[in-house]
Amino acid sequence: MNINTNMQTATSKLKQPATQKNIYMTIWRWHFYAGILFAPLIIFLAITGAVYLFKPQLENYMYHNLFYVQENEEKIATTDQILEVKKQYPNAVITSFTPSFEADRSAVVEMKDYGENVSVYVNPYNGDIIGTLYEKDRFMAFVNDMHNGELWGGTFGNRLVELAACWAVILVISGIYLWWPRHKKSIFGTIIPRIRFLKGKRMFWRDIHAVTAFWLSIFIIIQLISGLMWSGVWGNMANKFVAKTGAGSPAGMEPWESHAFPESTIPTKDIADVPWAAENLPVPKSSDGVTPISIEKVVETVKNEHVHPGYKIVFPQSKTGVYTVFLDPANVYPNRPLPSSQRTLHIDQYNGDILANLGWKDYGTLGKIVTLGIAFHQGEFGFISQLFILALVIGIILIAVTGFIMWWKRRPRGKFGAPPKQEHRKLLKGVAVIVLALSIFFPLVGLSLIFVFALDWLIIKRIPKLKQWIG
């Protein structure tokens, strides 16, 4: 069957002026190419993301013998727990300490041993070392690096993942436009799929694709934008915007106004894996001193600030460094607190003063929205939210797979089967404006379009058979 006949059949149902039909066909063409090119990577991201979603349960099962201890009467001093690790690893550099946050949970001392990041699990009741776990050997570290592209592509892989997420946002928006019922009044085919699979109708796959995408669209957008907050290009732009406008941090830098100390331009994310809203919090410097305070003093200060158990203490690594204490609810299991319990503190290593104290109440509106989005992305609102995100991920895979099936069933033999290109000057000007706006909002999309246009101009247009095959 001729591809143009298929297109005419689809667009004739719109009963719209020619210009609107051209717009429809143009958006369909962009939607088609983006789907074909990025659907495989989107499916891959959905699968790895689904695995990482259950990180608490999986790690709890895999490393149960390291995470849990026999409950006893009284825990030994924090200093003694760390000293036991120093005795066993005299050449290692202690980088952080996570106190036992449940009666049956081990304490965790993190260190660098010959350049390797190692977690040492300590029985808080007697100081015995239960075992060690190298960060590179963590299964979830492997899954995370697969998910963000670092493992299989390094920086290029990370940028490719970001590009796929950006185009996925465009796919959802363009898909909603294509789905929009216009003059259609029936709920079947719009919000309820027409079940004609047994009759061999392609309409079944179209409805599963479109209706599923419609119902999940807002949640997919949230999932994509929240995931982009970690990306190298768009995420850094968003972070800088939030930091510059004060939309995600305390206006006027109130947490630091009452303390006189040398200013710092080092963001907290450079020294600790803190919650997103605290990543650009400037790290202050400790006052002049000789003898650092004890770790017990730090723990006492944190308790007085009512920080939820499960926090991590990052040790100062220089004479002017500070103790950085943060609570990320994503790291607490099974009794995970709400995202609003996030805290980040910087404590003077010599006199114990709190130099910065950032919590939920200090977040700007945008900071709170992003924080909730990230928590939604990772299923941090309990097991039910994990199941919901799992269903969302399955829906994304279903949308991508049905899109491929639609293309495969519709494409003419011997051709790629792309929707025909529309030659309309006014339309092209409008498309150019949209493309420019998307390129500004998503810089990697702009770069990818430049690459595609160059490929089309330099290669595809100059090879007639290839041009005819692509359409």
From TrEMBL:
Pfam assignment, any one: PepSY_TM
InterPro entries, per the entry: PepSY, PepSY-ass_TM
Residue stretches spanning the membrane: 30-54, 160-180, 208-230, 387-407, 427-460
Domain called PepSY: residue spans: 85-132
Keywords: Membrane, Transmembrane, Transmembrane helix
Identification of the protein by name: PepSY-associated TM helix domain-containing protein
Organism per entry: Lederbergia graminis
